[in-house]
Structures are given as structure tokens and as C-alpha cells.
């Protein structure tokens, strides 16, 4: 790896350094735009006691759900979880902790973490269990709560295309949390469907500039669909 | 008679205006899209990062990378835009969405809403609901007026953990259209064939009943 | 104007409703990506006592500088000003007030304003005159100051292309402050070089989604260059 | 002899590492780009929203929409990206830029820097300088060691309004390379032919002088 070439040769190399007890921020919404091969690598590494920051926790047998199988996750920071039975079981048995965070606040916490904003005020969650223990302050006559930003030891991200310098473009709504996750990892690992040469992507149309990306790998993806809704042609 | 799901959606659709950006929650709110009045354009925002949501795809159009906030496969309409979750909630939190329609377990006379958590049951999370109720100025809550065993869901004070405080002004139940003003529900319209007495009986929170309460027509 | 068609027929219509004493947020960096025709329209309207939020204030005779000629600006909120003699004169004579704001804080204040974040903490400006009167709080062992967001009565924005629904794409570094400005106006007016039909722009490559845009107009632009630096071919 | 502008730029360039993202301030820092060591790649960030800045354009390439933070017309290199000011300062404030080089009027032993405002003179503004010094972990300040009439600019405490507090660790003047450690300047290198005595005489802030102070070579 020389200069700005972020491409690594294997998934082992992509996730090297991930250790027990670390915090991992993951892109994805439901099963859409999830870094499925990086998640599989985390499973293979058998690291434990992870804190995972992700909007959801996958389903039984796919996405982040597979990290539940060997109880690798200690804590989830998410807006919506429990789409799978194993999650529910571990939660009820006290093996898994969940910090529920409103979806927009979660996105903003990641963005703020990457952008050097340690905390911000939002009206979201005021007067609800989310506000417990948080400072309340009025702005423009309305109460807001203070939310702190999030950074991770690792961020795992699913892109569509990237150049070797780590400039990433996302496809359709597979974008979701990925751009914010990419900014918030001490080590940010991106897997994509296609790696191109620098100069092939339009500089004004980069979703994640390469400065945020430490490692890049090309993979193939199952892309499972959670709610397959179709209309007749 | 109590409104059907479709009638609820139809009644909500009358609140649409041409050029509205609208976020529709999962369930009955989603049906509102089917009743946009002729000659009117509205654009649907889906909080996972899509503005200008189209109908479900055909088999040929099906794409795992193209979903809505309910995780259903969808399409885009011309003039759509797709963006990150942070940008999506910037729109929502910043008050740029003209109308938000969502369901609830309870609402109360202070405009509080409880929609995400029933203690003792497994809590799956609030998703984007807290951001939606905190960010929107114009929210319609759709819900059944009372539980199956007759307990009112329109309360003096919510009993369940809140989704948002003081943010609800309009409620459409299967029995009535109500607005929340100065710490009371105000009965604005009743479902066809539903008596004011029934609504009064099933509303636990303070309720103002005007002299004339028009009946909805469909 | 029906549905989502944001196109207006004249610059008069584009800026209708702008009144004395209002706050206007303007995109642009130096003379790059400035809404030059919207600024000219403000001059023609002879509105006074404006607060202008913009990284710079143009130069003598061009950009926001022309609003100084008839003393239409009461206050500038900027990171860098005084590239013109008239500005200096009015400042020294007390006819013009300046609130200097670090460039990154200014960008974030606009973004926060548009995103419903009333205030945020930043390390930028701690221990400097910028911190005067602002709350200081430690996060991660480091002092930060509390900065409040900005919204404007109007936002004026220069785009490259837009569809009739107000989805905007910026060209090169003419992007700068424009996307944040676009989110932060009660009324956001965008002028572009070309208006296309909805569907012509790639939905995943929109810089400013149309939901932020109230009025759209196509203009022609002088695009003056401030520092013309070239190399021999 | 005191370093020339070019020598200052050359000395700074030795601090570059392959793969560094670098923000260069206006003036001498800009010259650093001319001395990137052979076989090494660095990428220049310009805070108006450009990563991967290239050289000035030819007449044919000249484009009013393509400028740097000094408002000069520039080009992009392959692999460049262009983004908003908010994104640009997210990079800067978030500590993603590997090295920032900028000028100053004064620095002091606490790592404070004053670079934007001389009371009594017209204040044009701080531009992005406050964000740059607050956001970067690795900053090199380039400046003359003393004013034209011999007054030290390396002080016990800055006298001018600050740009940032406690954020500077490395200073390159025309006379010396110094680092700031535990409330003192530490003399690390001296310009060719400049004596330790001269540097001591021209440094007002506490200064630690090691036994051996190597001379820079060019």
C-alpha cells in the first residue's frame, strides 16, 4: 500500500486490529447497504464483547444477526432492533444490552463524531425515556436535549463503487447510514462492488471522500431483501 | 359506523395540499398515498433517505438497493432524490416536511404521543418516530379511538412512555377527527353514523364538543 | 406554479417579500458560486438594514459589495471581509456591523439551522475573541464553546443545474456554502445556469434536494475571477 | 543565515509522509507543495471544499468555478473530490487532515497562536484559521522568528488576540525549528550559520536548548 491506495488484499487484512471490547459503527438500514462480508469476517475473527452502533441488528442468520450466534455483541446502539428471535432471547436473558436511540439522532451522532462536534442539542426525544439523564435546555422557547457524538474503533461501510483512493459512491437507498459511519471510525473499512482507478469517478459526485477511508476491498454481495413488495407489470 | 382503514386513509388524504412533501408512517398512513386527490401532486419522503418515492417495483424493476423506511422494495418517481440518513433527518428535524402521518397507542390533551413502547413487552425501538414527531409542525395521528375492550386511547395524560411531548395537534381515529387546543381535545368531525355520545363515552381526556359536529362523508 | 414546479418568471418574483431588516443567507466563497443576479435584484429593491450571512462580502462593484453602495447592509456575519474599500469605510464609520465567525463554524451554523439543531459545541474559537460570552464546556478533556445555529428570512443560492422541482447540482468548487444556505432560509431562492425537466438528473447525485427550494430561476452569470492564476501550457 | 521562503518550505516538506492529506495556508505554506519529496504522494485539501488540488490551470483550463481557499484558480488531480464547506470543515474539525501548515504573528510556550487580528488595524477576519488550528493534531507554524525591529514573536504569552489556545506543537521560523513541550519551546534545529546565541536572544518565551542543536542542511 503506497500513497493513497487504500486497497487491501483480503478480508483478514481489512479487519486486522479489531479486538475484543471494541466499538464498531456499521452502515446499513435493515438489510439494505450492509457490509455483509465485513460482518462475516468479524464472525470469523471470533472477537467478543463488541459494541455495535448500527440502525438495526440484521435478522436471524444474516447481517449483524450472525454476530449474535456466538454472542459476540455485548451492546447494540440502534433505533430499531429485534427483527430476529436470537436477539430477543439474548436481550431477555441479559446477555445483550441495547441503547435505543432515535434514528435521526443516531445519524447525527455519527456525523457529529466524524465532524469533531462533541455534542449538539435536539428536540427529538425530549419528554421521553431517551431524555433520561440528559441535559435539557430551551432554545427558541422550546426544550431540547443534549446528545453526545459517537466515534468507533472501526467503521464498516458498504459502498457501490470506489476508486483506489477510497472515494466512494453509494447506490440508491443503500446509502443510508454509510456516509456518516465512514467519517466516524478511527479505522474505516469500506467494501464495494467495484473498484476503479482514480479519475474515473466525477469529483463533484463523490459521496464519501477518500480522506475518511483507511482500507478498501472489493467483494460480492448476496443483498438479501427483507420485504419483497412487487406490483404486477 | 367506525371508519375502515381505507376511510381513515381517505379522510387524511383530504388534508393534503398540492406540492406537499409528506412522510407516511407504516400501516394505515401508508394507504394515504392511494387517495391523493385528482390533479394534486404530493411527494413522499421516506426517512431512510428517499424523497419522491414511487410505487412497488415490478418483478423486473425489483432492486435490493431500493427500499423505503418500512424496508419494502420501492421505486422512484421523476424528480426524486436519494440521500443519507443524516440528510434525511436534517429535512425532518429541520421542519421541511409539510405533513407527517403516523400511528399511536395513546395521545393526550397536552399533545403528547406514545407510540413505541409498552412496558413489559419487548421493545423494538422508536426508529424515526421521535424525530418525526419532534420535527414536524403538521402531524396527523391515526389510531383507533379505544382498545378492543373499550379503553380510551385519547387520554388526559398518556400512561405509556412518550414518543414526543406537546407535538400533536390533529388526531384521526376510527370514530372522529379531533384537534388538540389549549389542553383539550376538540371534536371536529364524527365518522358516519357515529354519535357524539359514543365519542364522548370513549374519550377519557377533556373533550370540547361544539354545538354542531359534522359527519364525515365518503 | 403548480405542484412542485418551483420555477418563477422573473427576478422580481424570485425575491418578492424581501423587506427592510430581514436576514439573508447567501451562498458563495469569494466571488465563486455567488448568486450574482439575486444580489443585483436585492440592490434594485433598495431594501435596507439587511443582515447578510455570507462567508465574504464580495468586492467593490461586484457580488455582495454592490449592496454596500446604497448602504443596504446593516450587519455582516462572515469569516473574512474587507476585500473592498467601501466595506472598510462603512465599518470604520460605524455604519456597518461585522460579526466575524470562523469559516467552519459558519458553515456548521447554517447546516444546523436547516437541520433543526439549535446549537452545538465546537473546539473552534475556544480561548479567542470568538468565545466571548459563549458557554465553555469540556468534552473528552478538551474545552469547547457553544455555538447557536443560523436561519434566514431568505436564502439566496447559486446552482449549476436544477430540475423544475428544485433539485440542484453545483459545479466544482462553486458548491461551497450554497448547499447549507439552501437549507437555512425560510424562503430559499436558487438561481441556476440551466433548468431541466424532473427525471433528467440522477436522483443519487442531487446536492440540494428540492424540498429545501421555494423558488427557482435561470440566469446568466458573469462569474468574475478574483485571483486569476495560470501556468503556461 | 536566516532561511529563505523557499528553504522554509523545503524544511516543512521533510515533515511530509507518503499518503498525507495536507492543508497549506496562504503564503509560504503554499510553497511546500513545490518540495514534496520524490516518490512521495500527498494530497492537498483546500478548505473551500476541495481535496486533491492540482496546479494552476493553463489559459485553456481556466475556470471561474474551480478555485482554492486563496481564491486562486486551480485544477484537480485524478482522485480528487469536491464538496460543501460544511463537509470540508467536518474533515478539518474532525481531525481527518494529517498535517496543517500555516503562518502566525505570534506563538507562545503554551501552544497558543495569534495569526489573524492586530488591534487598531482593520480586522478582515479569521477565515478558516481557527477551525484549522482547533481541528488538526499535527500543525506546523511557519513565521519569522522576530519582527523587523528585532522583537521576538515566540513569546511567554501571546499579546495579540488568539486564533487558537494550546494547539501548536511545532514552529519553523527563519532561524530555527522548535517544538513546544511542557510549557517551553525546545530548540530542535537551527538554520545554517545561525548561532544558538542568536536564537536564544530572539526568543522571548522560555526556551530549552539541548546540548547539541543540529544545523539544517539543504
UniProtKB/TrEMBL annotation, chains A, C:
Instruction: List UniProt keywords, sorted A-Z.
Output: Transferase
* Gene3D superfamilies listed in its UniProt record: Glutaconate Coenzyme A-transferase (3.40.1080.10)
* Keyword match Transferase: yes
GO MF terms, alphabetically ordered: transferase activity
Q: Which SMART domains match?
A: CoA_trans
The cross-references to NCBIfam families, in alphabetical order and at most eight, read: pcaI_scoA_fam
What the record says about family reads: Belongs to the 3-oxoacid CoA-transferase subunit A family.
What name does this protein carry? Dehydrocarnitine CoA transferase subunit A
The protein's gene is named dhcA
Automatic annotation (TrEMBL), chains B, D:
Q: Supply the Gene3D superfamilies for this chain.
A: Glutaconate Coenzyme A-transferase
Question: SUPFAM superfamilies, per this entry?
Answer: NagB/RpiA/CoA transferase-like
Asked whether the keyword Transferase is assigned, the reply is yes
Taxonomic superkingdom: Bacteria
Which residues fall in a coiled-coil region? none
Q: Which SMART domains match?
A: CoA_trans
| Pfam name, any one | CoA_trans
Which InterPro entries does the UniProt record give? 3-oxoacid_CoA-transf_B (IPR012791), CoA_trans_fam_I (IPR004165), CoA_transf_AS (IPR004164), NagB/RpiA_transferase-like (IPR037171)
The keyword Transferase appears for this protein: yes
Q: Care to name a GO molecular-function term for this sequence? A: transferase activity
Q: Which UniProt keywords apply?
A: Transferase
Q: Which family does it belong to?
A: Belongs to the 3-oxoacid CoA-transferase subunit B family.
Q: Which PANTHER family match?
A: KETOACID-COENZYME A TRANSFERASE, SUCCINYL-COA:3-KETOACID COENZYME A TRANSFERASE SUBUNIT B-RELATED
Q: What is the protein's given name?
A: Dehydrocarnitine CoA transferase subunit B
Q: Supply the source organism for this entry.
A: Marinobacterium zhoushanense
Q: Which gene encodes it?
A: dhcB
